[in-house]
Structures are given as structure tokens and as C-alpha cells.
Write a structure and sequence with these properties.
Length: about 300
């Protein structure tokens, strides 16, 4: 898929790179702002990522009696699935930097009657937990949004016990994930500036398998492996796909919220044009690829 040409709009200043503190606040606020949509679409999110969740658990092998930490949990799908594997004596801690997401995950655990699930508000770059208290750390689609993913990887190693395991999932290369890549292309063309803006890590920032593995190796993990998993996306119509994507994608939701109605409609039409190659008689069918990285604390 060819990238859309970015055109600077008349009178629009060029984006500046935010400092780390401002960027971190923007990222945290971005995900807090869409927590309601993630609650609404939690069943879809679980279903969309079911194969990824299963593979993460198979690779990290949580055992009965172990303690598991899920970082950037969103509605908590991975950790909730892990709870049965460590029951009855084991414990799962669901955590996210957005308090709204943590509340959603806690409510879902309560509805499922999971008595071995706890929740925390935690930043994956600064995990406020003691050293060596977890057997497994899981993070699905969160590490790519860290301003300092190397620091996050070191923090993950720190909170793991010797022999503890980590399983991470991030989106693969942008060109292999057009279900979201073309949305960012359309938004960039519409506003005349890159989406996400400079200094803000995007969903494909860790889409290189070698770089992803290097993060874990550099943090001191052993037995590091990176694999990929096909995660195609199907939608019954453009409108179904656009409504869900615009509700769940933090960067896009923030842009849409700041636009007048006319501009929002124009952006949707740009996206509609870009989906032409993925239309079928049954709706839209997109390819997608997730990278999975695993390692062990020596």
C-alpha cells in the first residue's frame, strides 16, 4: 500500500517534538480518553486477539500457584485468561497506566467471579512493584507506545524472579497491517502532519523483529525468541470497521475529537477510498501480523 502524500495546510504550523514529560502525559491521556470505548468493545477485543492471547500463554506457561503481571492491560483480556492457569493459589495482577482501563478490567474480573485477580495503576516504564515478585509478565500491544521501551524491558526483568518468563506482543510492520496503517495515512493526509506526531511512538514503532528481540536481549533476558502470528481482520462493511477503529485507536480518536464535522467526514471518505483493495462481497478483509517476543530472566 502506497503511503499517502502529506500536504501542509495553509496557516498550519509544523508539529514540534514534545519533551519527554509532555509526550508521556499525552500518551497517558490519549488512552484514558478511549477507555469507555474499550469497555464497550471488550468482547470484540478479546475475540480479535484470541489467537495472540493463547500463544502468549502457551509460550510463557503460567503454572498453578504462580504470580502473573499484565502490563498495559486495557480491558484485561490476557490476564483474565491467565487467571485460570494459575488458580487456585496463584494470582494475576492486571495493570494499566490509565485508571479507567484498570477499573474496566477489575469490573470484568468481578463479573467472572475471579477471586485470584488484583488490579494496579502502573506505568510499564516505571513499574512500582518490588524486585523479583512475579513469575510471568505479559504485555499485549502496549510496549510499542512506551517512550523508552528499553527502560520498560529492564523494568520487566527487574520485577521477575530468576527463571521468570516474559511474553510480549506488538504489531508487526505497518505495511503488513493495513487495517490500521491506512487509517494513519488518511489522517496524516487530512491534517497535513504525521500521525502520530514526532516524538510520540505509534502502533508500529516496534514492528522490526530484530529490534524487538534486541530490547529483551539488551535488558538481560536469556532464551529470547521472536515469532510472528497472522491476525487478519474482517468487517461486514466499511462503516462497521470505521466506527470501531475510530473508537478504539487512541491517536485517531484524539484527532477526530478535535475536528469539525466536515473534516471528520472528509477523513472518513479518504479512509474509504484507501480500503478499495480490501473489499470483498462479504465486506472488508485485511491482513494483519503480530510479533511475539519471549524471554527468561536468568
Amino acid at each position: 500500500m502506497a503511503a499517502s502524500r502529506i500536504v501542509q495546510q495553509p496557516g498550519q504550523s509544523r508539529p514540534t517534538t514534545p519533551d519527554a514529560g509532555d509526550a508521556r502525559a499525552r500518551i497517558h491521556g490519549m488512552w484514558a480518553s478511549v477507555s469507555g470505548s474499550w469497555e464497550e468493545h471488550a468482547p470484540f477485543i478479546d475475540d480479535r486477539h484470541a489467537a495472540v492471547t493463547s500463544r502468549m500463554l502457551d509460550l510463557s506457561m503460567p503454572q498453578p500457584g504462580e504470580r502473573v503481571l499484565e502490563l498495559a492491560c486495557g480491558p484485561g483480556g490476557v490476564g483474565l485468561a491467565a487467571a485460570a492457569r494459575v488458580a487456585p493459589a496463584g494470582e494475576v495482577v492486571l495493570s494499566d497506566v490509565a485508571a479507567g482501563m484498570v477499573a474496566i478490567a477489575a469490573a470484568r474480573a468481578d463479573r467472572l467471579g475471579l477471586t485470584n485477580v488484583r488490579t494496579r495503576v502502573l506505568d510499564l516504564e516505571r513499574i512500582e512493584q518490588p524486585h523479583g515478585v512475579y513469575d510471568v509478565v505479559l504485555c499485549r500491544d502496549g510496549l510499542q507506545f512506551a517512550l523508552d521501551p528499553a527502560a520498560a524491558a529492564r523494568e520487566i526483568r527487574r520485577v521477575l524472579r530468576p527463571g521468570g518468563r516474559v511474553a510480549l506482543a506488538v504489531w508487526g510492520p505497518r505495511e503488513r497491517n493495513p487495517w490500521l496503517g491506512l487509517v494513519l495515512d488518511a489522517a496524516s493526509a487530512q491534517i497535513g502532519a504525521p500521525v502520530p506526531p514526532p516524538g510520540i511512538p505509534g502502533p508500529f514503532s516496534l514492528g522490526d523483529a530484530d529490534a524487538l528481540g534486541g530490547l529483551l536481549t539488551g535488558a538481560g533476558f536469556a532464551d529470547v525468541r521472536v515469532s510472528e502470528l497472522a491476525v487478519p481482520l474482517r468487517a461486514g462493511s466499511f462503516d462497521e470497521w470505521w466506527a470501531r477503529t475510530s473508537a478504539l485507536a487512541g491517536p485517531l480518536a484524539a484527532i477526530l475529537a478535535s475536528m469539525p464535522e466536515e473534516a471528520r467526514l472528509a477523513l472518513a471518505e479518504r479512509a474509504r477510498d484507501l480500503t478499495a483493495a480490501y473489499r470483498t462481497p462479504d465486506g472488508l478483509q485485511f491482513p494483519g501480523v503480530t510479533l511475539l517476543a519471549t524471554g527468561r530472566r536468568p
